[in-house]
Task: structure prediction
Amino acid sequence: LMAVMVSIEMKFKPETAEKMLETMKAALVDTRGFEGCQELKSYYETDTHSLLLVEIWGSAEAQQAYMGWRVETGFIDLIGGDLAGPPIARTFEIRDDI
Result:
């Protein structure tokens, strides 16, 4: 299994941005503790209310299991109404040979 870097960009509605930052602060504790999550850094662009998560996972399968858990527990539905659009997620192979 190959480690992957996953980026997820979420744009919050301006009126819910502060609430969403608090929600994400609490939620990301679980993400960092999820099996296979090796690292998670977050970046926030104030002007656009955009949160960028950069995650390192031991494998794509571990990240997919995590996302499945987030869907099953209702978290994705919970935050959906506070987003200005669908999240943009990308998965990259970590290539030390390039």
Remarks:
- The longest strand covers residues 37-45.
